[in-house]
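Supplementary Methods, section 5.1.

A reviewer requested that the exact input to the structure prediction be made available. We therefore reproduce it here, unchanged from the version used in the analyses.
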Amino acid sequence: MLVNEFGKFIAQTRYENLPADVIGTVKLRVLDLFAAALAGYHLGCHKQLLPVLGGAGEATVWGLGKKLALRDAAMLNSFQSHALYLDDGSRFTGGHPSPVVIPSAVALAETERASGRDLIAAVAAGYEIFLRLGRAIYPSTVVRGFQSTAVLGAAASASACANLLRFSPETAKNALAIACNLGVGLKEALKSSGSQPIQVARSCEGGIVAALFAQYGAQGADSILEGGFLKAFAENPATADLLTGLGTDFRIFETYIKVHGGCRGNHAPVDVVQDVVKSNAIKPESIASILIRVDSVTYAAEIHSPANGNEAQFSVAFAVAAALVNGDASVFQYTDAKVADPRIRAMMARIHVEVDKKLDEGYPDKRAAAAEIVLADGRRSSGYIPNAKGEPECPLSAAEIEAKFLTLTKDILPGGGARVRDLVMGLETLTDLSVLTASLKSCS
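The structure derived from this sequence is encoded token-by-token as follows.
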């Protein structure tokens, strides 16, 4: 049974057995998620959920510096990590592994007084389960109306926790099998992006529950993947390669890092428009119209006329207009004030977004976008990009990811984030994660 093979992998994954490039990538993913979470905290994304949670102080809420119960801290950190849609992702799964794997692993590592090496191994294991199961059910799971991150989140979170707790293969299998029942979420919830992250956060929490339940001897169904999870979330699950290279061929390299804010579907359009503008020395005020072509999956999430900052995160037109008017499409552009800005509204009125079925043919190997810009004097310029920047085909360097972290946290963390950056990049030297979590308190 598949779940038994995954249980062996989870139990046997150790820092000492990980390739150096996997270790380096894990640290960069942790750093990038901290950036997303702290930006979410800075913009108040935690405030509505915080009163609902509580419990004895066990694990730290990032930014706030306050400790909540293990499950509640992980849930709140997951929520604010995903709230700005700045977290990493995988176009091969349609989901985001970092906000379900890392918050649970960090919270449990803090309460267990685990080492940085333990955390690295746990994150690597959690990512692997997320990405392998995700490939098997995507894009069918989204077509059925589910959100990949929430569906996969509990299984991935439980895998990370089971590894951190050094479960036997049998107990790790049980944790994963139990967790397969606890992750669910709906794609339609993205239309209310302010509350949608709750389904991701609950999935993250579900993984912790599953692991702790298994620790006390609870059994999971051996047939849960073949007989339940896979066929429930996909029409024809792609199972042929589920175990190929497990433990040697790590899939974390398939994940992307975001340069811009908002939904990933916005990013290739922003990149291609910026490329066309730069290569043709186009001044934004000279633009008469822009036609942007995207694939069907990207278009399905498009909100062309957003009413607020949350909705703007799913608006290609807004993202492109903000980049043209204000010079970037960073996470700090997605505010109610920017949505109401008459300059951005005027530019949005010149932008038309449509589906190009030809782009569907390459999806998800390519999540392409094409743009044609018409100037006021009638001149036309066009461009095409196969994937947004930050994808595995055009990855950001370690220096670029570190720079992104420092840019986003310069006004949030004491000293501008350099200490946290150094701690994460030296994660393997930490004997106690509390040193790191204590450094995540905002200075405001």
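The chain has 20 helices and six strands. These observations are discussed further in the main text.
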